[in-house]
Every structure is written in structure tokens, then in C-alpha cells.
UniProtKB/TrEMBL annotation:
The gene is xseA. GO terms for molecular function: exodeoxyribonuclease VII activity; nucleic acid binding. Bidirectionally degrades single-stranded DNA into large acid-insoluble oligonucleotides, which are then degraded further into small acid-soluble oligonucleotides. This is Exodeoxyribonuclease 7 large subunit. It comes from Candidatus Xianfuyuplasma coldseepsis. The lineage of its organism: Bacteria, Bacillati, Mycoplasmatota, Mollicutes, Candidatus Izemoplasmatales. It catalyses: Exonucleolytic cleavage in either 5'- to 3'- or 3'- to 5'-direction to yield nucleoside 5'-phosphates.
Length: 428
């Protein structure tokens, strides 16, 4: 009879956990390390790996403690944590339950990432002027990823569903590890030599900063920059940003997103074609309706109702030119000159008559005015002109008694002698 006593895995794990929990050295442990594989759970918990150059430990920080962290936690950060070491029974892994966390500066990978990003940006590798447009309807897509990962399956499925006319060529590529960067560069160059693809999807699924690091390598960045075929970078999850994302012609949040960007959706294309057909039909109908209205309007024009009116203006113009031409004939010109002469002669006679009548009228006016001041005309009314030695007498002061005077009346002359002189007092 075998007397060996076998423990269950659960019993052993509970025992180990008990030992961990009772060990005073594993309580309030102070650790320094670099964060990797950071996950912020929807309930507020932090899940991450704390590591250094030679070792790593899983870590969890519950929401009651994580909400007190005064900074944004991200991969590559170097932190100082305090917590208890225990065993998570379901996985059998030991981990630290972090209670407090403070910054200890940036981790080595993060510093290297930022330095390379700054350098390449200054060199212009991220400039939009170098970005190539992604073809709208690619005939062939080159996919650079692991041939066995979920990423390649997602890409193939999405491309075949959205646009099955596109051909896919898989270039098996290492996407993590120390040889990955060289393999990525080789395959990018190979695709450019083959000249079979219209666009390249370079990517992989999510992972830690170490897993994604090949896509942060300088050699890979330059290979992407030099590619004559446009590249879509589809590395990790939506929150992961690599150097490849900045250099590539377009960044997709995930490999699936890269496939959706690379090809159009055939459903959308069919809907677009149907929409264009309907718009074309309506446009042609509107054009035809306008042409019909225009034709109806033209048919109602007076030219079509009375075609002779079309030449009416021309006929009048022709008659005018004929008349004008006839005036240029010598006989016609002489006849017209004679008419003009007779007309001018008559105008001269009429003018002379008008002048004569005007002068005659003015003559009679002058005669009448002279008659009004003529002494003879006054004498007809009984007045007499008295003269002495031919001098007209205007005052009695010119007379002396005994002088001889001549009296001129309307119908003759008489002689008289002054017998007396008397001057009226009214004139003194």
C-alpha cells in the first residue's frame, strides 16, 4: 500500500498563499520598477507588470487606491510602489497588491521612444508632405504580420467581406523579439522589389511595450519612410502609438481597422452606384423636361407662326438700300439738285416777302409816331405858330409893342402887329 500523501493543486496553492500572507517581509514591500502591460479596468482597477532588467512581477491596484494616484499611468514609466505580496490562487501567480504609487521618472524604453520620436520628427519623417495617398480600390494588398496570429485572420476576413475583388499576399513577418526589426525591414524592401501590391498593411495585435518595440526601431521607421508603396500601420490597440504609426502613410488603431481602411465596402459601393444611377436618371429627366419646354417655347415663336416675318426686316433694309442707290445715279442727283434749287428759291422769295412786310409794318409805325409830333397835325386842332423875323416866339417877354409878327396856321400864313403885351401872373 502506497503511503504517499498527494496534495491537490488548490491545497498547495492555499498553503503557499498562507506562507506569503504570514511573512512579515512580504508586507508593506517597497518596489521600484518600470510599468509594462498597463491596463485600466472599466471599474477603476489598475493591472500591470512591474519589471527591471532581469525580472518582473504582476501587480494590481484596486480602484479604492488607484483613484488616489495623482498622475496618468502609462507603459514605460518608472514608479515607486508600496504594497503586499500574495498569491492569486486561480492562476497560482504571486503578485503585489499595490496600495500607493509615486513617479520615479521615465523608464528607459519610454525615454528611448521619446528621443527617437523627436529625432525623426526633426528630420521630417512625420511630415504630411511625404504621405502617399492610399488607393481607393487596391487590386492587391501585401500583409506583413505573423502568419499564425489573430491579426492576419482578422485582416483576411475583413478584406474578403468588404471587397473580395482584392487579392491578399501574406509576407510572414516576425512582429516581436530581437530579430523582428530586421525581418520587418527585409519584408518592406521585398514588397517594393516585387511590385505586386498597391498598398501594405504592417501590423500585429496588442501587447506590452516590449512586445511592440520592434515597431519603435529606427531601422523600421526609415524602411517605412523609403517605401514607394503606401503603408498602413496597424499596431496594437487603439491606445497604442508606435513610431511606425507616425512615419506610415496612414495609421489604423488595430489590424482590423487597417483592413477596413485599405479597402472600400462593397455594400457602400453598390449603394453609391445605385444612388448615382438614380441621380443620373433624375438629371436626365430634368434635362429632357427642360429641352421639351424649350422646344415648346421655340415652336410658339412668331417666326414659326409667321415665317415671312423672318425676312421682313431684311426686305425693308433692301428697299432702303435700293432707294439710296438710286439717289447716287447722275440723273437722279441732277433731278434732286433741281428740286433743292427750286425749294431754296421759293424759301428766298418767302424770306424776302416776310422782310418786306416787316419793314412796311415798321414804316407805318414810324409815320404814325411822326404824325403824333408833327406841328401841322397839332395846328389842325386850332393851334397857331407865332414867329418874329423867322424865330418862333415862345414867351411874351420876346415881344414889344409895334413889332410885326407872322402867324402860321393850318391852312396858311397871316401878318399882324403887336398892339399890347400882357404877361399872365400864373407864369411869373
Amino acid at each position: 500500500m502506497d503511503d504517499k500523501r498527494y496534495l491537490t493543486v488548490t491545497a498547495l496553492t492555499k498553503y503557499i498563499k498562507y506562507k506569503f500572507d504570514q511573512d512579515a517581509h512580504l508586507k508593506n514591500v517597497l518596489l521600484k520598477g518600470e510599468i509594462s502591460n498597463f491596463k485600466h479596468h472599466s471599474r477603476g482597477h489598475f493591472y500591470f507588470t512591474l519589471k527591471d532588467e532581469k525580472a518582473q512581477i504582476s501587480a494590481i491596484m484596486f480602484a479604492s487606491n488607484s483613484k488616489k494616484v495623482p498622475f496618468q499611468v502609462q507603459d514605460g514609466m518608472s514608479v515607486l510602489v508600496e504594497g503586499n505580496i500574495s498569491v492569486y490562487e486561480s492562476s497560482g501567480n504571486y503578485q503585489i497588491y499595490v496600495q500607493t504609487m509615486t513617479e520615479d521618472g521615465l523608464g528607459n524604453l519610454y525615454v528611448a521612444y521619446e528621443q527617437l520620436k523627436k529625432k525623426l520628427s526633426e528630420e521630417g519623417l512625420f511630415d504630411d508632405t511625404h504621405k502617399q495617398p492610399i488607393p481607393r480600390f487596391p487590386k492587391t494588398i501585401a500583409v506583413l504580420t505573423s502568419p499564425t496570429g489573430a491579426a492576419v485572420r482578422d485582416i483576411i476576413h475583413i478584406v474578403n467581406r468588404r471587397f473580395p475583388l482584392t487579392k491578399i499576399i501574406i509576407y510572414p513577418t516576425l512582429v516581436q523579439g530581437e530579430y523582428a526589426k530586421d525581418n520587418i525591414v527585409q519584408n518592406i524592401e521585398q514588397v517594393n522589389r516585387d511590385q505586386l501590391a498597391d498598398v501594405i498593411i504592417l501590423g500585429r495585435g496588442g501587447g506590452s511595450i516590449e512586445d511592440l518595440w520592434p515597431f519603435n526601431e529606427e531601422q523600421v521607421a526609415y524602411a517605412i519612410y523609403k517605401s514607394m508603396i503606401p503603408i498602413i500601420s496597424s499596431v496594437g490597440h487603439e491606445t497604442d502609438f508606435t513610431i511606425s504609426d507616425f512615419v506610415a502613410d496612414l495609421r489604423a488603431p488595430t489590424p482590423s481597422g487597417g483592413a477596413e481602411i485599405a479597402v472600400p465596402n462593397q455594400v457602400d459601393i453598390v449603394a453609391y452606384i445605385n444612388q448615382m444611377n438614380e441621380q443620373m436618371r433624375l438629371s436626365l429627366k430634368r434635362l429632357l423636361d427642360r429641352k421639351k419646354q424649350s422646344l415648346t417655347h421655340i415652336k410658339s415663336h412668331y417666326i414659326f407662326q409667321d415665317p415671312l416675318r423672318l425676312t421682313e426686316h431684311k426686305n425693308r433694309r433692301l428697299d432702303h438700300l435700293v432707294d439710296k442707290l438710286s439717289l447716287l445715279h447722275p440723273g437722279k442727283r441732277l433731278e434732286q439738285a433741281q428740286k433743292d434749287t427750286r425749294k431754296l428759291t421759293q424759301q428766298l422769295i418767302d424770306s424776302m416777302k416776310r422782310i418786306y412786310k416787316d419793314k412796311e409794318y415798321k414804316y407805318h409805325i414810324a409815320i404814325n409816331k411822326l404824325d403824333l409830333v408833327n406841328p401841322l397835325h397839332i395846328m389842325k386842332k386850332g393851334y397857331t405858330i407865332v414867329a418874329k423875323d423867322g424865330e418862333i416866339i415862345k414867351s411874351v417877354s420876346q415881344l414889344d409893342v409895334g413889332e410885326h409878327l407872322t402867324l402860321r396856321m393850318n391852312d396858311g400864313v397871316a401878318e399882324t402887329t403887336v398892339t399890347s403885351v400882357r404877361k399872365d401872373k400864373d407864369y411869373e
